[in-house]
């Protein structure tokens, strides 16, 4: 298994480039979908600072169901259109929430969470799930985080057999 190499003193843009390369290296040669998602969540938790939860909700039988994650136990099922996750999945676009208390319908899993980013996972136009990351401070995620995490998801998509999950 390749080591994770992200230089903590580099700029945020460079750290996200390194993160994408680390993900490629980590998943190289492995096709097990569950193992790859589990390692992707572990890589995020190990690399990103000032977060308290990161992981995946998977699109199953018309609802989002909890997948591999790092953090406190979380709610298992989220209907389309509900919470930040269900809204991002419905709109099929990334949602950055600066203050979770100001987002109508936000679903609280870890009460420590103050801000959140949710990136939908779309494989050739098909919804496969979302990547969800929570932070214990307001305004944690900016445009650089958004671009970096969307890139992370793009690297992940062809390396996971979503239909086998
Ligand atoms: N806050 C999310 C629910 C999932 S947890 O944060 C892990 C939401 O509103 O959809």
Explain this structure:
The mean pLDDT is 96. This protein has helices at residues 12-27, 33-47, 83-91, 143-156, and strands at residues 53-60, 63-71, 77-79, 95-97, 115-123, 126-135. 33% of the residues lie in helices and 25% in strands. By secondary structure, it is an alpha+beta fold. It starts with 11 loop residues before the first helix and ends in a 9-residue tail after the last helix. It binds methionine sulfoxide (SME).
Instruction: Determine the N-to-C terminus distance.
Output: 23 Å
Structural class: alpha+beta
- Proportion of residues in β-strands: 25-35%
The stretches of 5 or more residues where confidence is low (pLDDT under 50) are none
Largest sheet: 6 strands, antiparallel
- Across the major sheet, the strand order is 3-2-1-6-5-4
Specify the overall morphology: globular
Reconstruct the topology from this structure.
Blueprint: H1 12-27, H2 33-47, E1 53-60, E2 63-71, E3 77-79, H3 83-91, E4 95-97, E5 115-123, E6 126-135, H4 143-156
Antiparallel strand pairs: 1-2, 1-6, 2-3, 4-5, 5-6
Bound molecules: methionine sulfoxide (SME).
């Amino acid at each position: 298994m390749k080591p994770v190499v992200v230089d903590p003193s580099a700029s945020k843009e460079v750290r996200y480039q390194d993160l994408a390369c680390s993900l490629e290296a980590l998943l190289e040669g492995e096709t097990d979908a569950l193992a790859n998602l589990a390692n992707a969540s572990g890589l995020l938790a190990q690399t990103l600072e000032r977060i308290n939860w990161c992981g995946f909700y998977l699109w199953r039988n018309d609802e989002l169901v909890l997948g591999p994650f790092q953090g406190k136990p979380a709610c298992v099922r989220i209907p389309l259109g509900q919470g930040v996750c269900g809204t991002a999945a419905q709109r099929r676009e990334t949602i950055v929430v600066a203050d979770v208390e100001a987002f109508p319908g936000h679903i609280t899993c870890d009460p420590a969470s103050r801000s959140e980013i949710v990136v939908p996972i779309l494989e050739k136009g098909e919804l496969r799930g979302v990547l969800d990351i929570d932070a214990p401070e307001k305004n944690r995620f900016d445009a650089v985080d958004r671009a970096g995490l969307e890139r992370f998801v793009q690297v992940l998509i062809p390396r996971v057999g979503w239909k086998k999950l």
